[in-house]
Amino acid sequence: MGGGSDMYRQQILDHYKNPRNYGELDAPTFSHTGENPSCGDTLTVDVGLADDGETIESVAFSGDGCAISQASASMLSERLPGMTLDELDAMDTDDITEMLGVDISPMRIKCAVLARQVAQDGAKLYEGDVDDLDVTKTEGDEV
């Protein structure tokens, strides 16, 4: 791997050691928690929507986990503001690996996508698309 991947590795370490938007929003529009049982990662994502009820205005996260899950949550918390809930829903695993900028092994992909999945599931609960989902879990092949 060339110098470019080293730059992305440094970016991941920076977001892990100095997470952006870590904590809780004072009055989130919705909040949801998820976990990755295979690694032990846990995340809560708070989302604040603009007055239109569709545009993400602010994001915060809290929890513990490996460098990949925490860096991904930090990076996602910077990327989501300004996006709509439909744009959030359209995000997939490729969007996350592209954001991270490094190849993620199959064992770590669930760590990388946890924040995205938690935010998406929280939005689905908020919009009434899902009736009952206490905790998102990155299990099986649905990542």
Q: Can you offer a commentary on this structure?
A:
Helix 1 crosses helix 2, helix 2 packs across helix 5 and helix 4 crosses helix 5. The model has no long low-confidence stretch (mean pLDDT 92). The protein has five helices and four strands; from the N terminus they run αβββααααβ. The longest helix has 19 residues. The protein has a four-stranded mixed β-sheet, with helices on one face. Helices cover 43% and strands 19% of the residues. It has 143 residues and is α+β, with helices and mostly antiparallel strands. The chain starts with a helix and ends in a 6-residue tail after the last strand.
Produce the secondary structure layout.
Layout: H1 3-17, E1 30-36, E2 41-49, E3 56-64, H2 67-79, H3 85-90, H4 93-100, H5 109-127, E4 136-137
Parallel strand pairs: 1-4
Antiparallel strand pairs: 1-2, 2-3
Helix pairs in contact: 1-2, 2-5, 4-5
Short summary:
The chain is an alpha+beta fold. It is built from 5 helices and 4 strands, in the order αβββααααβ. The longest helix has 19 residues, at 109-127.
Computed structural class: alpha+beta
- Number of helices, counting only DSSP H or I runs of 4 residues or more: 5
Strand content: 15-25%
* Global outline: globular
Bin the helical content: 40-55%
H/E order of the elements?
HEEEHHHHE
Radius of gyration: 14 Å
Tell me the distance between the termini. Answer: 26 Å
Keywords:
143 residues; alpha+beta; 4-stranded mixed sheet; 19% strand; globular
